[in-house]
Every structure is written in structure tokens, then in C-alpha cells.
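Good morning N.,

You mentioned wanting to compare the apo and holo forms, so I went ahead and generated the holo version with flavin-adenine dinucleotide. This is what I fed in:
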Amino acid sequence: MQFHLNGFRAGDPEVLDAAAGPGRSDGLPGEVDVLIVGCGPAGLTLAAQMAAFPDITTRIVEQKEGPLRLGQADGIACRTVEMFAAFGFVERALKEAYWVNETSFWKPDAGRRENIVRSGRIQDTEDGLSEFPHLILNQARVHDFYLDVMRRSATRLEPDYGRRVAGLTIDHKAGHPVSVRLERVDPGHEGEIETVRAKYVVGCDGARSAVRRALGRTLEGDSANKAWGVMDVLAVTDFPDIRIKAAIHSANGGSVLIIPREGGYLVRIYVELEALGENERVASRNIDVAQIVTAARRALHPYTLEVKEIAWWSVYEIGQRLCEKFDDVPAEEVPDRVPCVFIAGDACHTHSPKAGQGMNVSMQDAFNLGWKLAAVLRGRCAPKILHSYSEERHAVAAELIDFDRKIAKLFSAGAGAASEGEVDPAEFQRYFVKQARFTAGTETHYRPSAITGGTAHQHLAEGLVVGRRFHSAPVIRLADAKPMQLGHAVTADGRWRVFAFGGDEDPAGESSAIRRLCGFLGQAAESPVRKYTPPGADVDSVIDVRAVFQQGHRALALEAMPGFLLPAKGRYGLRDYEKMFCADPAQDVFAMRGIDRVRGCLVVVRPDQYVAHVLPLDAHEELAAFFAGFFV
Ligand SMILES: Cc1cc2nc3c(=O)[nH]c(=O)nc-3n(C[C@H](O)[C@H](O)[C@H](O)COP(=O)(O)OP(=O)(O)OC[C@H]3O[C@@H](n4cnc5c(N)ncnc54)[C@H](O)[C@@H]3O)c2cc1C
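and this is what came out, ligand included:
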């Protein structure tokens, strides 16, 4: 990480200086730029992103009296861990979490069907899919990490707890068009009403979203007709795979999913319960934790399970449901107006916990939206980019729901070899393997739009696919020979990145493509870097250009490189030495990501780490035209 740019500063570099200005007040201000509703994974991801911008007034409200302490989701997909790196807390997550390296499958023993036997054991995530593993960690800890990011940011953003959204109205003519009625539910203030006017409101308020209701939108799809019991337990057992993620299909105890948890002892057990009748809610069954324990024991037979402590339990209903659109603008009005209210996370899509997607997709929704809101509010991007949030994320949610329906069906189907209505455990295992990339969150693929370019030049970087997340690879930093991950240059700070991968020539040469590119970006009137960087701001504050060379780091002379790649920044004009990288011969980024060694290429990366464009190194005009499509 970089610090001391504007003068030496002692202390924890992760705690930024508090921004000047009104800062936090005890109550909510009457007007804000962004009001976020709900402190779940979606709301906190968005709040952590918005907290990076002290020039934007953001508030986040939550009906509960304080942060979540335990329970709910726990699966963290590889793609989400990559996002944690962007927010700066990946090391803490990796240290605390359980790592899902393998998954085992169990089925009824053919000879004695009341017993279960292991039918397979596979690697959970394919090699090279991500630089990070699949993790399991309590949702509450994920919330804590985001709250820490917010607290350490220049805005010192803290949630306003004990506020419930009671209503919302939109007046398109007003400067702050959304008026939100909040009812206080915290002790001593019950029933007090506050009104906040906001430029943008984001409902991250879960499956029963009041914001969604206020927009007149509904979740459509299957109502919950399958209930699963879930418990986090400390238990003594002779089941051998208790520290491996295990999917168990038993003949007489239904299906069970074992998820080992952080800390080495805790384990989560999901148990399939009876099917619900049409329109029946699980609450009517009065299921208690003793029934969940009994069902788990039955499924694990002949192994024993002695539960010593139950840290948390719940009965979780499955319903795959999706909202038609994730903002306030009806489809027919898209050309004429821009959205000012959005919904994210469970407020717009719900699914079963089986594939462990709920928390992940919710956080990715918010990551997709946050930089767009910031770019529009800071006057950098045209407001029309806000339409892309619903377009992009609705497509992802629809795909997820199809996937979830299939996996939930396979899970819930009875176990057998091939008898009617039963699922062959081998088929389940095959489907699980096939869909592993999807579960890892790396299959998301945004379609071409103003902010995602075409694929005419994709052959120049076959492994950095336009519309997919920037797949990181190891590199060595030229200035200090530090081995690092290239993708980790893309932090959650709202900046765009342009990675210039050099061709087979000497980048320091007088007429090299890299030098010509640097000349264009640094000096030409049409350069997007020059056009969109505000006067007085650091040259990389809007578009951050980095170069990656195929030569070894000892073969290149730093001092011979174009000055644009050693920019002077901050109040002292200190040189930024972190713009240039070289291939690591042991794990060559050019080979790993299919980059054309002769011609090199440009890879444009969005602030949410998705590849926006691949262009030839000398496509200066095309690069400028791409940014001109949405920057102002
Ligand atoms: C009880 C429960 C158990 C779950 N168990 C599992 C599980 O076992 N496995 C799994 O994978 N997933 C589970 N999930 C789902 C998973 O937690 C969600 O997919 C994920 O949390 C979605 O994140 P979110 O931010 O969209 O919404 P949520 O996490 O639901 O957060 C919404 C927040 O908004 C607040 N809120 C709601 N209405 C208002 C209002 N009107 N005003 C102000 N604040 C409001 C809520 O209090 C809440 O804090 C569970 C969810 C719940 C609610």
C-alpha cells in the first residue's frame, strides 16, 4: 500500500485523516447524496465503497439496534475474496476463515441402505481459477470488516441504527428527489419520525424490502416450499469428513450438508426438512432445533453426532424469486430518465443457501453500483450509466436463480442409483463440478454496453475476457522487485485502470509502442487522462495507467522508461514508482492470460475489477472514444 504521499504521517496507515467538513452528526442530516437502507452484506459493501469519497454525503440506516453478531450466510466465493482484496481486508478474512479446498459426497450404502458411504471426494476449486480460495466465514464477521473500512475512511461513516424505513416518495423535479420517512425504533426514541431527502436511495433491506414495496415492485417466482434447518454447532462425532465440506444423500434421513466453520471446531449443518404445502410458511410447523439435531443424526447413520453446544440455528425457507427490474425506472421510460432509487441483494433476488450465493451476489450487486453512483455524483460520468446497474445485475441474478433451482432440486431429490424421482449421486457430483466456476462467482459476464466494449481485439488477450472480471496473475514490480498480484492494483477507489502490456520490443526504445502511448496519454489534447482528470488532481486520480513488460525486471532500466510511468504526485511532486511491472518467468502473465507477445495490448478495467475493453497498444483514438462514451 502507498502512504506518506503528502507528508510523513505516523501511526496506522490504514486509518485515513478525517475529511474536513460537517463530518458525522449525532442525528441524520435532512439532505444527503446517498441514503443506503439496510446493514446486510449489500448495504455494507455499498457503504464501504461510498465511504471512500469524502466529497459525497452518504448515510446508511438500519432498523436493528446494532451490528449482526452471528448466523445467516457463511460461504464466500473466490470472486468475493478478490473483492475483499480491493477493499483491503482480505488478509484478515483469509486468516480467520475456513478454506474449502475439497468437497466430499456421501450416498446410501448399496448393501445396507440405512448407512451412508463416501462416494467421492473432489478438489473444490479448479487450479488457477483465482489466486484466492473459497472461504467459509460468519456473515457477521464480514459485516465487521466492512464497518472497519468505513470507520477508518476519511468520512468515518457509521451506520445510523434503530431507523426503519416507513415510506418513500419521489419528486423528479427536486434537487434531492427521493424523500424517505424513517421511524425510530431505538429505545428512548420509539415512534419519532425523521425525513431524509436524498439524491439516490439504495434499498439493501433484504427479501421483505420496504424500498422495493415503495417502488411497487415485487419478487416473482416460486414461493418457499422447501424448508431447511440450519445449525452452527460444537459437536463430538466419528463422521470422518466433519472438517471437509460434505454433501450427504441418505436413504432414510434426507439430505444434509456439512460446512466446517472457522476456528477449527465449529461446524454448520444444513438438514433438509419436509416439503411445505402451497402457500404454507415454515413457522406454522413449529420446528425446533431438537428436530434438526434428530434429522442430522438420522442422515449421518451409522456415524454418531453428539451436539454439545448450539451457537445459532434457524429454519430457512427456499424460494427462488426475482424482481423484474432493480431500479425505479419502468423499462419504457429508460430512454427518458435516469434512476434515483435502486434495490440490491436479497431485495431483488432470493435463492436457497445450497450454492452459498446469497451473500456473495448481494455484495457483488453493491460493488457494481457503488462506483457508478460515485462517478455520477462527482460529475465524472454521465448519469445514464446508472441504467447499467439493473441491466447487468438482473442478468446475473436470473442466471443464478436457474442454477439454484437445479442445484436445490438435485439436493432435495431422494438419493438412489437410478430409481424414478431419485437423483444419482454421481449426477449430482458431475453437476457440482461442472458448475464450480459459477459457484466461485467467476462466470459473471457483462454484455457489451457503453461501459463494456466489444470483442474485436479479444485475441490480443484471450485470458482477460471483455465483460468478465480481470483475472489476476503474478508479476514483479520493476522499481523494487516485489512479487505481487497484478489484479491487486485494482482497489475499491472508483478509479479506472488501463494496463498496457508491452510487445516484443524494448519499451524504453525511442519509438516503442509503450512510449508512443505514454506520449499520447500524457500530452495529446484528446487523451482521456488529460481530459477527465480535474485540474490540480494527481494524474492517476481518474484513470490509473500501469505498464506490464514481458522482459525480466533486471533486464530493464527504470530510468530509461517514459516519464508518464513515473508520475510526479502530491504536494511534493513525489515520484510514484508503482506503475510498472515485469513478467515473473516462473508464472508468466503473458502466457497465463494469453497476451500477444509480439503486439502487446491495452486492457481497460472498470473500478469494480471487470474487463471493459481490450485494444491494440496503438489504438489511441479508440481508447479515447471508449471513455468519451460515458465520461463527461
Ligand atoms: C434469518 C436469515 C437466515 C439466513 N440463513 C442463511 C443461511 O443459512 N445460508 C445462506 O447462504 N444464506 C442465509 N441467509 C441469506 C443471506 O443472509 C442473504 O442472502 C444475505 O444476507 C443478503 O444480503 P442483503 O444485504 O441483501 O440482505 P440482508 O442480509 O437481509 O440485510 C438486510 C438488512 O436490512 C435491514 N432492514 C430490513 N428492512 C428494513 C427497513 N424497513 N428499514 C431499515 N432496515 C431494514 C435488515 O434488518 C437487515 O439488516 C439468511 C438470511 C436471513 C435473513
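The pocket of flavin-adenine dinucleotide is lined by residues 37-43, 61-64, 72-73, 75, 139, 164-165, 204-206, 210, 230, 314, 316, 345-347, 353, 356, 358-359, 362 (CB under 6 Å).

Happy to go through it together on a call whenever suits you.

Best,
F.
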